[in-house]
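User: Please predict structures.

Assistant: First:
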Amino acid sequence: MRTNRAVNAGESTDEGSGSMLTLGIGASFLILTFLLIPLLGGFVVHQRVQGAADVAALAAADIASGRQPGNPCETAEILVSGAGFSVRECRLVGLISRITVTTNFGPIELVARARAGPSSAT
């Protein structure tokens, strides 16, 4: 019968393996953290851009229908720029307004589109 001298002498052959496991888990945690935080931040900014597009489209549709005075696209631009974003496209087809809003989130351009108008026209 063969015996391992290191085991018989009370020495372990896997010294440091727990440290490497801890280091690997810690590195994985840091990598996931630094990837998820910007991703979640981008989601929040996109929701804000979508909300600005929705508000601008509703305001433009109100003006196009005659409920409010003014220029639909100018009003949409004022509302969107007040939120810190920019209007890429403002189009009116009859009483229906279509608004495209953009912003930059780091190197990524976030785009949101909204459409509003009377229920009989949409």
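Second:
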Amino acid sequence: MISKLTQILIDLTPIRTAKAHCDGPCGVYDPSSTRVPAEAVLSMTKKILALESPDADDAAGKAKYANTIARFISIKEEQAQIAKDEALILWTDYFKPEHLEKYPDLTDIFWQTAKLCSACKQEVSLEHAEELMANVKKIHEMFWDSKGRDVPWYTAS
């Protein structure tokens, strides 16, 4: 009975075509979806570098260290991939040819950001993690400028 009523309502409702200049309705893109995981990459990199190795004869300490470093690395790599995916979505789905005219280095910044995400997965480099955050800040600035808005850059840490 309910399915028949639902079908009747569907049949009576006119279908309208939605049009958008991007894959989704305007307003669904935000560079914070790249910033948050990039911050996690930086945080995990700092934690990995600060982690002290236990004495060679401390079996429990070595097990705890191995578990902790494995978790930090796993989080760092996962979040670097998320940052990469989110940056590529902004690059390919939000930014359009007219943005390239206004921001001539747009393509290079996104390409370098994707490469930095890969580097942050492959190694433990504070320099690369900080460069990633600097690029994400540039993306943030271009994105909000393209919308004519002044949204301040901030980080959680």
